Amino acid sequence: MQKPPLAPAIILSEPQLGENIGACARAMANFGLSDLRLVNPRDGWPNEKAEAMAAGAAGIIEAARVFESVEHAIGKLQLVYASTARDRTMAKPVLTPAEAARRLREAAGRGVHTGLLFGNERAGLTNDEVALADCIVTIPTETSGFASLNLGQAVLLLGYEWFKAGDDTPAEQIDHSVQLPATREELILLFEHLEEELEKGGFLFPPGNRPGMIRNLRSILHRAQLTDQEVRTLRGVIVALTKGKKRGNPPL
Questions:
Q1: Cβ contacts of residue 137 below 8 Å, gap of 6+?
Q2: Architecture of the domain made up of 9-165
Q3: According to the model, what pLDDT value does residue 169 have?
């Protein structure tokens, strides 16, 4: 059985608010990240506000490690990307979150230990800290408006891209886990029931257009991928509508 790729460590350099650290931990838990490393958190560690904000991600908070410098925090890592929105005028590749996630996944699949480095809420990363990274990751925003991102938001977005890069969830799906798909027999009975009432109501007119109209109606119902319960519901709707018509009820 193939092992899952090594998830990147999340390194927060001098984070200020415990609430933001907790929000980062929650974002990490959402997307399968667990290695949280803190560099000189301003309000000390452990932090009650971080624990409260983390909620279901308390395990990540409890396992978080504190380091005295970024150099120590990333010392055992082999590939590090720095998240920053500022132009650093450094000869480093600047990646989108999606491309960064793709490269991190590829490296992790080879057994490379990776990390994502984030600066504090007030000033972000210093140039010296960015210089320690292999690449810069910049999250695209509306730069002419409000480009600033909360620390927890930045971790959430990059964590999502990491998760998405290895996720195989279908782009579209229908949940039939509770109800079974309708059988061909049930569908055919629905078609015949509907067509019979439409014939009575004069919808399938003129006669020369009838075959094409029936094919179109059946195609529409086929695309809906109806369950057995949905077929029964539709047949009940047909009965209710035709009964109302027979009683002379005014149209809606």
A1: 81, 82, 83, 84, 94, 95, 96, 97, 100, 116, 158
A2: 3-Layer(aba) Sandwich (3.40)
A3: 85
* Per-residue pLDDT at 148: 72
Length of the chain (residues): 252
Q: Is the peptide bond before 5 cis (omega within 30 degrees of 0)?
A: no
Closest residue by Cα to residue 194 from 247, 250, 239, 243: 239
Asked if the bond preceding 206 is cis, omega within 30° of 0, the reply is yes
Tokens coding 186: 């049930």
Distance, CA of 79 to CA of 139 (rounded, Å): 19
* pLDDT recorded at residue 252: 44
Neighbours of 64 (CB within 10 A): 23
Using alpha carbons only, give the angle 219, 221, 222 rounded to the nearest 5 degrees.
Answer: 60
pLDDT of residue 251: 47
- What is the rounded distance in angstroms from the CA atom of residue 149 to the CA atom of residue 122? 11
Question: What is the pTM assigned to this prediction?
Answer: 0.71
Q: Which residues of the chain have pLDDT under 70?
A: 1-4, 143-147, 174-178, 244-252
